[in-house]
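During the second half of the funding period, the structural biology subgroup turned its attention to how the target accommodates small molecules. The most pressing case was 3-isopropylmalic acid, which had performed well in the primary screen but for which no bound structure existed. We therefore specified the complex as follows and requested a full 3D prediction, including the ligand pose.
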Amino acid sequence: MGVLKKKIAVLPGDGIGPEVCDEAIKVLEAVADRFGHQFEFETLLMGACAIDATGDPLPEKTLKGCFEADAVLLGAIGDPKYDNNPAAKVRPEQGLLKLRKSLGLFANLRPVTAYDTLIDNSPLKNDRVAGADMLFYRELTGGIYFGDKGRTETGAYDHCTYEREEIVRIAHLAFKAATTRRNKLTLVDKANVLETSRLWREVVQEIAPEYPDVQLDYLFVDNAAMQIILNPKQFDVILTENMFGDILSDEASVIAGSLGLLPSASVGERISLFEPIHGSYPQAAGKGIANPIATILSAAMMLEHFGLHTEANLVKTAVQNALERRVLTPELNPTAPYTTEQVGTFIAYYVLEEAEALPHRDNIEAGLSTII
Ligand code: IPM
Ligand code: MN
């Protein structure tokens, strides 16, 4: 792959979003320096910060900027001032949902890996977790998230609907992904109760013969929630609808050892978006304790998406190095923690120099001058 020029829209969002985005940008800049690529970043407002500034969680300018970019990098959105205020008319989350819908991002890929070096950080038993490696294909623009919702005189409703085609398109992506991995696909649904789930099963069964090498099985979501913790190694690709995927992927992060490690890529009709699966963690904002690795790994997925495989692998190796040397934020390294910025710098430095960057703070801080 030659030298690339790419425009990246950055939506840092709220809480820890801006801090973790800064570190991912630092790593992307290190990649650009090392390989001669040109990445141009445009920072745009989305979420609670956009409501504060413009009254709109997804201003027109932001949407336009995303459409004009080659990819979108997102931090996190959300603010507690909206969470316990059911009467709020505008909410930060509406911005994210509208963005996903407008960009046609119907498939959200969430890989979950048990890192050998962090095996003791998982509250689950080592032998259950070691070797677990699964990839969620979460449907992202349909289901209960996007159905009619509202109030009646005495209650409220959220409709869950799926069109056949919405299932077909993501099912093909999930089957294809399985063929590049361990050839196993699990459809998670609630077909014993929900009509939409019965449609999912029907459509996936129809498609299955096109992928004869893929072993397909089905799990009800309640059972899946248990199996993910009980025996995570049984899973390869998990295909599921919007809300089940939201819930199960947070649960599965326990296998990796921290929610702060899990990246995601949302793909679909046009431009793709990359974001950590964690939220805006407002209590941690500005304290330098947020783990930037999920966002850095999301940036690696972006590089992969650009076809920059060597570059993506180098970022992953650099992250692996940080894990091995325990250059980690407090939730993973409570006794000798590093700051958000130091973790990012260590990874960027490794990308730039592929050096055996030393795990001492002094060296990491010294590394800064070579990067910026
Ligand atoms: C996620 C988040 C979002 C979702 C929220 C912020 C709307 O939890 O990306 O997993 O529910 O999809
Ligand atoms: Mn979620």
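Two results from this model are relevant to the next phase. Residues 36 and 351 are 13 Å apart (CA to CA). The longest strand covers residues 5-13.
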